[in-house]
Design goal:
182 residues, mainly alpha, Arc Repressor Mutant, subunit A, 2 domains, 8 helices, 2 strands, elongated
Amino acid sequence: MPDNDLNPLSYLVLALVGRGGAGPHDLVDMMRRGGRLYWSAAPSKLYAEPKRLAARGYLTSTAAPGRTRSRTVYHLTEAGREALARWIATPSRFPRLQHEGVARLLAGDLGDEEALRASLAAMRAEIDELEALLRENRERAADLPHRARHLRLVGDLGDRLLRTHREWLDEVERELGGHPSP
């Protein structure tokens, strides 16, 4: 089966479904619990993509008990596993970034620098939140022993990204005349 009907979000969904299966709500929850540090996807896309992948033979679906009603759980098919294996073997590119803080800094000479500094410093609260989510994810990794090593490496990247952003914010605040937030 050719993989030309798959896009980066498709591969993310296939990877998140993984060995154990997942429903669309599970995928959205995974992104809420820190996945947004690595990937930007609207919840509506995460609900729609598994259905599309099932229609193309990469996933199957089953009904499973839910809290109030049955829920759909998707599982990889052989075609889905093969597509993931081919994709894993292709060279990875540097990630696409859409960094609002950088865009604001680029326009910094056109506005008030104190307001810019405060705008960027506000990112610290989200960094704190993401650090807490990474800690929770480390604890949950014990429930997925087949993925523990990979999850640890992903978490290590998350820690480094957040640490780098804190250091960058410190530098920006110093340069713009403020002092780094405590």
